[in-house]
Amino acid sequence: MRRLTLAFTAGILAAGAAAAHGLGSEAPAQQTAGILTCVTKPEASLVFGRTPVADCTFAAERGGFRQSYVAVFSPAATTAELETAQKVTWRVLTKDGFARPGMLADRFTAAQDRTAAKPELVGRAATLRLLSHSGQSSAKFALAQPRVQLAAAQPGMTR
Question: In angstroms, how far apart are the furthest CA atoms of the chain?
Answer without folding.
Answer: 84
